[in-house]
Write a structure and sequence with these properties.
The chain is mainly beta and about 180 residues long. Helix content is about 5%, strand content about 10%. The chain contains one helix and eight strands, in the order ββββββαββ. The protein has one helix spanning about 155-160; strands at about 15, 40, 60-65, 85, 105, 130, 165-170, 170. It has an eight-stranded mixed β-sheet, with helices on one face. Strand 7 and strand 8 (about 170) form a beta hairpin. InterPro entries: Leu-rich_rpt, Leu-rich_rpt_4, LRR_dom_sf, LRRC56.
Length: about 180
C-alpha cells in the first residue's frame, strides 16, 4: 500500500519497483493487486521469473530489463502478456515464450541468444508483431559454433522463421 500510494489495492493498475528476490520473496503479491496491468521491475535482481509468483495472469505489460535473468521459466503464468521487455539479461533459450498467446511486442535486445533456431519458438506467438533482437550473437552469425558468414543476414533469417512479424529492431520486417 505504501509503494502504490493507495489504501485500496483494487485501484492499482500500474506499479513500478525495484526488488531483490535473493533476499525477499515476492510470494504471490499479485493476489493483492487484481487489477494490475503493467509492472515495471527494471534494474531489479530476479533469480527467476518464478519469483513473481503465479498470480499475475491479468498482467498485460511487463518490464524486466537489466534484472540478471538467465531463463524465462515461469513466464507462462503471465498468460495475458501483450508486451514483454526483457532487454539486457542473460537469456539464451526462448521455448517458454510459446505459452504467451497474446504477445505482440517482445524486446530481447542485448541477451545471449546464440542460435537463430531459438526464433522458431516465437513463430508460435501468432500475434507477435514487434521484435527486438539487436545486440545478440544471432545478429552476427547463425549459431555459436559457426564462423561469421559474409552473406549471413539475420533479418532475412528471422523473417523466414517468424513470417507474421511486422517490425524487427524497429524497422519494418519486410526490409531485409
Amino acid at each position: 500500500k505504501a509503494l502504490a500510494g493507495v489504501d485500496d489495492l483494487q485501484q492499482v493498475k500500474t506499479l513500478e519497483m525495484r526488488v531483490d528476490t535473493r533476499e525477499t520473496s515476492l510470494g504471490n503479491f499479485g493476489v493483492h493487486l487484481p487489477n494490475l496491468r503493467e509492472l515495471k521491475l527494471n534494474n531489479s535482481l530476479l533469480v527467476s521469473v518464478r519469483d513473481l509468483g503465479t498470480s499475475l495472469s491479468h498482467l498485460c505489460v511487463l518490464w524486466m530489463a537489466c534484472c540478471g535473468l538467465s531463463d524465462l521459466d515461469g513466464i507462462s503464468s503471465c498468460s495475458s502478456l501483450k508486451e514483454l521487455y526483457i532487454a539486457y539479461n542473460n537469456i539464451s533459450e526462448l521455448s517458454q515464450l510459446t505459452w504467451l498467446d497474446h504477445l505482440e511486442v517482445l524486446d530481447l535486445e542485448g541477451n545471449n541468444i546464440e542460435d537463430i533456431d531459438q526464433m522458431q519458438y516465437l513463430r508460435l506467438c501468432c500475434k507477435l508483431s514487434h521484435l527486438t533482437v539487436e545486440g545478440n550473437l544471432i545478429c552476427l552469425k547463425p549459431n555459436a559454433e559457426s564462423a561469421e558468414e559474409p552473406g549471413y543476414n539475420y533479418r532475412a533469417e528471422v523473417k523466414k522463421l517468424i513470417p507474421h512479424l511486422k517490425y524487427l529492431d524497429k524497422i519494418p520486417a519486410s526490409q531485409t
